[in-house]
Amino acid sequence: MDGAALIRGAVGRRAFIQRAGWVGLGAVGVIGRGGSLGLGAIRPAAAAAGVREILLETRQVKWELAPGRSITAMAYNGRVPGPEIRVKEGERLRVVLKNSLDEPTTIHWHGMDVPNSMDGVPGITQEPVPAGGTFIYEFEARPAGTRWYHTHFQEHRQMDLGLVAPLIIEPVGGEPFRFDREHTLVLDDWATGTGPALPATREGVAGGRGEMGGMMSGMRGGMMGRGMGGMMGGGSQNMPAYDTMTINGKAYPATEPLRVRKGERVRLRLINASADHTHVMRLSGHQLRVTHTDGNPLVEGVAVDAVPIAPSERYDVLVNADRPGAWWLYCTQPGHAAAGEKVLVTYDGREARKPEAVTDGIAGLHLWHYALGQGRNVLPAASGIVRSFSQTLSGGMMGSDAWTINGKQYPSTDPIAVKRGERVRVRLGNMSMEAHPMHLHGQSFAVLGVNGQRLARPLIKDSVDVEGHMGAVEIEFAAHNTGDWFFHCHKPMHMEGGMITLVKIAE
Ligand code: C2O
Ligand code: CU
Predict the structure, then answer these.
(1) Count of alpha carbons within 13 Å of 158, Cβ hemisphere only?
(2) Which of 312, 369, 227 lies closest to 495 in space, CA to CA?
(3) In the predicted model, is pLDDT for residue 424 greater than 50?
(4) DSSP 3-state percent helix, strand, coil across the chain (nearest 5)
(5) How many CA atoms lie within 13 A of 153 on its CB side?
(6) 486 lines ligand 1 (CB under 6 A)
(7) Residue nearest to atom 3 of ligand 1 (CA)
(8) What is the pLDDT of residues 357-376, one digit of tens each?
(9) What does 440-503 look like in DSSP terms, one character per residue?
(10) For the CA of 463, the nearest atom of ligand 1
């Protein structure tokens, strides 16, 4: 984020709301043009009591993904993705949500340890905010890292239409990895009806099988196309035809080039807001050094050629800008770059250079996978007993839209009921053909093992991709945040098909 793009100011709450009004872009606080591909950034004004306040207005807008590809989107403050919110760890954040859609909505603060009543799950933690209504979210911004926020009302439709945005919490103790410049990149998939449908992501490529899984899905996408893949994977008949892939709300050629300078160390915050697709991101000519998983730092960076990112996952990576020229940052999944998921990275003074063409697929690339990383244990410690649970993920047979946990669909699924302080272990086994990025609200967890392999230093995450075809993951967390928390697959089709359970943490 270019510091110059952010204007800071302190106003009292009333003055603030008056000045902002509820009209126009609905943008309050301070919105500047960020360094991130023109992503709007809000560094909220500080109110008297040390509260940072922001107004977010949801409403329908016409949004141009690329020339000739305009859609009727739902947006926060008129832009897709919504404005990046940036605050310091521990600061109090007050977000006034004004719903100018003609239907209800809520906001979920993904990856944040918010109080249960601020979690944004309609029917569980709050009533949906009706059309024309207002709701005030207030919480302390923690933990530090690359987080995001999105609608949690009819996610399949509302997230697909654009109600997603980055939320960056800067650590108070200083950044564990030095960088000179940063860009936030929100990846998304769109069904616009303007092009051929892309193959769905099936087995997943993020977990312990790493390159094997990637090869399988790459081959399937490339050689068989969507029809066959759908039959084999048991893909749903009702899957929207995703045909456009965006970076910060734009598909190439509309993506805005990223500028770097020779010698810089550039941090990329990659957020996958897609409903269905895993993206395998690569910067040609460079390695990516993975430093954070879902916002949480690793012991040391892991250099790879490309990083698979399942829906709702985030990775922070560092790039050493040491090869002057022009390069593509793009997704290697078959067809994704052609569908818009690429952005030019140019070194200052080398703008005229022509980048080499992108190559689909991951043949010969060293891919990130969970077992490569060593997490730092940043989670609260448990004080109570160990409680173990096992969840079998199934569904999607013969194109069905039913998705189950231990054979049941939400709300009939059995909750994980524990007490505050207890150490909770959950083994997730995937009996279906498709990968499930499972996300826990309200607290992050440690990934203890993947596909039978123990992780010596567990990764800290809040979403974990459980690969298809018998993929298995074991997670553990100290139940420190009381309340009823959603634990669900982050593919909204699967979620709406029933793959949700509640983690109930009693005082
Ligand atoms: Cu980002 Cu319930 O999810
Ligand atoms: Cu799923």
Answers:
(1) 25
(2) 312
(3) yes
(4) 10, 45, 45
(5) 21
(6) yes
(7) 110
(8) 898 999 999 999 999 999 99
(9) ESSS-EEEEEETTEEEEEEEEESEEEE-TTT-EEEEEEE--S-EEEEEEESSHHHHHTT-EEEE
(10) 1
Angle (CA) 199 400 244, round 5°: 25
218 CA distance to ligand 2 centroid (A)?
Answer: 19
Kindly identify the ligand whose nearest atom is closest to the C-alpha of 202: 2
Gyration radius of the chain over CA positions: 21
pLDDT number for residue 49? 62
The bound ligand whose nearest atom lies closest to the alpha carbon of 442 is 1
Say yes or no to pLDDT of 109 above 70. yes
39-69 pLDDT, tens per residue?
456 666 665 567 999 999 999 999 999 998 9
pTM higher than 0.85: yes
**Model confidence at 304: pLDDT above 90:** yes
Angle CA(135)–CA(247)–CA(443) in degrees, nearest 5? 45
DSSP E strands in 203-358: the ranges are: 244-247, 258-260, 265-272, 279-283, 288-293, 296-304, 306-309, 314-320, 326-331, 342-347
CA atoms within 13 A on the CB side of 309: 32
Question: Predicted confidence band at 211 (pLDDT cuts at 50, 70, 90)?
Answer: very low
